[in-house]
User: Fold this.
Amino acid sequence: MSNHLRTFVMPQAVLLVCSIAGCVNWQSSENTAYKSAMDAKSAVAATSPLQPEIASSIKRNTDVITQRTAVASANPLASQAGLDILQAGGSAVDAAIAVQMVLGLVEPQSSGIGGGAFLLHSQGAGPTRRMQAFDGRETAPALADESLLLNAQGQPLPFFEAVVGGRSVGAPGVLKMLAMAHQQHGKLPWPRLFEPAIKLAKNGFAITPRLHASLLADAYLKLDPTAHTYFFQAHGAPHPIGHVLRNPEFAEVLLRIAKEGVDAFYKGDVAHAIVDKVQQHPKNPGRLSQQDLVQYQAKEREVLCFDHAVRTKVFEICGFPPPSSGAIAIGQILGLLQYAPTPFKPPVQGALDADWLHDYAQASRLAFADRAQYVADPDFVKAPAGDWR
Assistant:
């Protein structure tokens, strides 16, 4: 076939489980409230499936075509920060770092320096193209074992009992991964990339409908005194859409990382604060240690690519390998849809064909069943047939 094209599966940055501001000691009365919230969530979880990450709405945008640069993110403030970096002579990696720092401020429910991320980088064209996969996924604490997510009777904990608090927190990898990518592909000085986020944290940003919806749906965040003061009003409701949030403490942490490098986060008083909050959680303490932070290492992995034919064209689709599952799932879904009884049809007034959508849903179910059964950290788990492709 002709016209062999290349496209990319862009991995979504993975989010922090417990932020620096979100893991503090609670008093006994708040422990009671925590237990009530936990019991309520467990009761709901027993009767209904877990919901995906909340979305405030669906917005259909027009296509955008550009000859030189483009930045896409979950928030326009983050996209603007990336575009500003590109226009200042920065590389794509420089822009990605600026975007990530702003997202950690304006989309704290979905992204942050206390979590993990994947970065897929492509440079050049044709036979000289070089693709790299930078792995900054969180790692489990050294003291984690098979009992970590089990109760006293050896049974798996309900979802919310396992994830809320310090128990589920691993060593974050975002910053070390971004530093690795910047060392290889950065053009602008490291401190310059933090300027947009630092400025926004000091001057403030408006709460978006998406952030507001996330705050409304969260049963635990308001129980934390620090988070309550920042995100919520005195009577317990979240600040309204458009309310300006300022986070000078976060600005100070970013400023130190900008000046001193990532050691300002992985060592010293910031690292001590993270570990203390994780280990001292009153209901669900975790096992994260100082050594886990110090010893964390970002990795570079081999990009995962596969061919997908559409009529007379063959697309080479490339994405992140395990421990990410996105590229594998997309490859399986596309492969299964080749044998689907209903061909794809363009949307009519924004709506997809119901029969094709059913086929897509069934293919997705099978792909995600494989994901749950087989896909894991390749440093510890081998692919079922010896290769993830």
